[in-house]
Amino acid sequence: MSELDKQTFLSNGITPQTQSKQPGVEKEMDPTPIYELESHVGSGKLKGKVALITGGDSGIGKAVAIGYAKEGADIAISYLDEHEDAEQTKKRIEEEGVKCTLHPGDVVDEDFCFSVVEDVIKEHGKLNILVNNAARQEVKNSVTEISAEQLKHTFDVNFFSMVYFTKAAIPHLTGGDSLIYTASINPYTGNKALIDYTSTKGAIVAFARSVAQELAEKAIRVNGVAPGPIWTPLIPATMTTELQESFGVSTPLGRPGQPADLVEPYILLASEGSAYMTGQFIHVNGGGYMSS
């Protein structure tokens, strides 16, 4: 049994809780997410590369940032305003002997997205990997409850920001570099409580596969990861305590995922190990897609 399975075996291991603001903060979570495993020892897969990760202060983005740092990459993190989480993540990354810069601001603003990429080029000298990961969600019982404001905001954060960052990054990428997108199991299965969120993730899959075709001739790879239920600050910030009590337990593996469960797929997609992969999405969901 793995280290992660032992901690959540036969239970989701979650104490139901709430936070008042998205995307949530790590210090208020019980238990705190697991971002890294002792078994992950870097081997230089990303040495000399620079990675920009949106939503990299906590959750999946934080786990990926730490994983990339262990593999030798310098890191730039875009995040909203969770400064304490971001500083703690930066500190952990720099313990790996690499450089980390922080770029706070709202990704719904196209000018901000372009300015982040420009700042990364100025401070790091280049950009090799863009992980489009920032997201929001709101649980609603029916599509009729989704306001126009919510619909627009969800698409602004989840989808349009990724388009902005992609447009800003492409001129700086060369052969062997990678664009990586965080999708979800939901567009493959549907989710009646997260209809607008699910729709944005479906749009991301379609967008990534289309851009993959465009950039193939330049040998720039475009792939993504489709996570299932992952214990991140976004969950207590958006889900009811009732939903949290059963979070992840219906998967065949019987537990929610942890951010650490996602690290290796993101490393694969950023490294030469995926040199013959583009337009692909790796499913990490405890078997949830299989059993849906």
Provide a concise account of the structure shown:
The protein is 39% helix and 12% strand.
Written account of the structure:
It comes from Rossellomorea marisflavi. The chain is an alpha/beta fold and 292 residues long. It has one domain: 3-Layer(aba) Sandwich (Rossmann fold), CATH 3.40.50. Helices cover 39% and strands 12% of the residues. Strand 2 (74-79), helix 3 (83-94) and strand 3 form a beta-alpha-beta unit. Helix 2 (59-70) packs parallel to helix 3 (83-94) and helix 5 (148-169) runs parallel beside helix 7. It is globular and about 45 Å long. It starts with a helix and ends with a helix.
> What's the structural domain tally?
1
Low-pLDDT parts are none
- Please report the distance between the alpha carbons of the first and last residues: 24 Å
Number of helices: 11
The arrangement of helices and strands along the chain is: HEHEHEHEHEHHEHHHEH
Feature tags:
11 helices; NAD(P)-bd_dom_sf; oxidoreductase activity, acting on CH-OH group of donors; Rossmann fold; alpha/beta; single chain
